[in-house]
Amino acid sequence: GESVGLHLPTLSVQEGDNSIINCAYSNSASDYFIWYKQESGKGPQFIIDIRSNMDKRQGQRVTVLLNKTVKHLSLQIAATQPGDSAVYFCAARHNFNKFYFGSGTKLNVKP
Amino acid sequence: KAGVTQTPRYLIKTRGQQVTLSCSPISGHRSVSWYQQTPGQGLQFLFEYFSETQRNKGNFPGRFSGRQFSNSRSEMNVSTLELGDSALYLCASSYGGRANEKLFFGSGTQLSVL
Using CA atoms, how far apart are residues A102 and A71, in angstroms rounded to an integer? Predict the structure, then answer.
């Protein structure tokens, strides 16, 4: 069946370094993708999204890259800060079908 | 603009009981989705309602049900609770009129089944 998976359950980075979180999706028809951040005790918070007609989108300190050929999505966080410590989820959707979420990557930022 | 509001925040029930969770979407949003989150399992989709109609459904047993009211508020019900139903239940809303809309999540209801 359709699925979304993350490559690493945990990622540890040094404060100030760049972080890269990866995600793979199975449905080649997926046309909308979102990255969410979830802090302990809170609901997921929107970070950035991208449509399938794009391969890159930038926000404040974050960049999402989409490679439709290999069905891969990545989130890059520049100059990672302690406040970036959280669990990061990617989600994929095709048309009005349900979103499929990955299992999450926990980002630990070491001071 | 107020965010997505879920009540109650915490709930403790015993096996066999039933429970009803409530979600008030962001004003103007007509789509409400429900997710179950357990440690290490990510977000498992339960169902989505749009304009009072169920638009999508996940792979959960019939003990899990939901509904949406004319003001877009939604409730989900779990009957005959099992220990494995202990989880964080998240509600998310969106306008619902376009496929490429982001979801806005509430803080969730933490359900513990004893």
Answer: 13
The string of pLDDT tens digits covering residues B34-90 is 999 998 678 999 999 999 999 999 999 999 999 999 999 999 999 999 999 999 999
Residue reference for tokens 């449905």:
A27
Q: Do A43 and B56 count as a contact with CB atoms less than 8 A apart?
A: no
Whose tokens are 């609770």? That residue is B81
pLDDT of residue A50: 97
Question: Å from B20 to nearest chain A CA?
Answer: 19
C-beta separation of A31 from A50 below 8 A: no
Identify residue A100 by its one-letter amino acid code. Answer: Y
Q: Give strand pairing partners of B11.
A: B111
CA–CA distance, A92 with A64 (Å, rounded to integer): 13
